[in-house]
Specification:
The protein is mostly helical. It folds into two domains: 44 residues, Arc Repressor Mutant, subunit A (Orthogonal Bundle), CATH 1.10.10; 137 residues, Tetracycline Repressor, domain 2 (Orthogonal Bundle), CATH 1.10.357. It contains nine helices and no strands. The longest helix has 23 residues.
Length: 187
């Protein structure tokens, strides 16, 4: 189990940094302090190894929605989901590697990533519910606002300085939420 975890940690770093095509199984093995043969003993192929991370990304964002539940007002849930997603992207290398691999896999098929489309649909659903409860103005369609929140979440992950702490990005998302809430109050 520990050997497999070492391979997963080394692989997450490799995939997050170099993507699928640039990831090198020899570097992963060396980073884990193991042989390439030992790597193949745990994962039969590079595809199988990458699938661990794409599955973990899909399960991870869905878990975030389950954790926040649906007992609170939709806008509060949307707030916690966006902040939680950005925090997880900056603290969970496996989650970040999964997102990169999901995009690369979809790009190779010239499609949108299904996991990201599902995430966008959930965000859009929350926006529509917030608009129905008059927590958000209905001046823009739920799809536009859902896409905006998705862009915020993904953008914060890829535009933060590499040496920024997870708290830095979380604070920035909270500040954007304060701007949104101030704008809603003024409207």
């Amino acid at each position: 189990m520990r050997t497999q975890e070492r391979f997963l940690d080394a692989s997450a770093e490799e995939f997050a940094r170099h993507g699928y095509a640039g990831a090198n199984l020899q570097r992963i093995s060396a980073q884990a302090g193991m042989t390439k043969g030992a790597l193949y003993g745990h994962f039969p192929s590079k595809d199988a190894l990458a699938a661990v991370f794409t599955s973990a990304f899909d399960a991870g964002w869905r878990e975030l929605f389950r954790k926040v539940g649906d007992a609170d007002p939709p806008l509060a849930i949307l707030h916690r989901v966006t902040v939680g997603f950005v925090h997880r992207m900056h603290t969970d290398l496996r989650f970040r590697a999964g997102l990169r691999l999901v995009y690369e896999e979809a790009s190779a098929r010239d499609t949108a990533p299904q996991a990201v489309a599902d995430l966008s649909a959930e965000l859009t659903r929350l926006v529509a519910a917030a608009q129905d409860r008059a927590e958000l103005a209905a001046t823009h369609s739920p799809e536009v606002l859902g896409s905006t929140f998705l862009s915020l979440m993904l953008g914060m992950c890829y535009t933060a300085p590499t040496d920024a702490s997870p708290a830095h990005s979380t604070r920035q998302v909270c500040q954007i939420w304060q701007l949104l809430e101030a704008g809603e109050t003024a409207a």
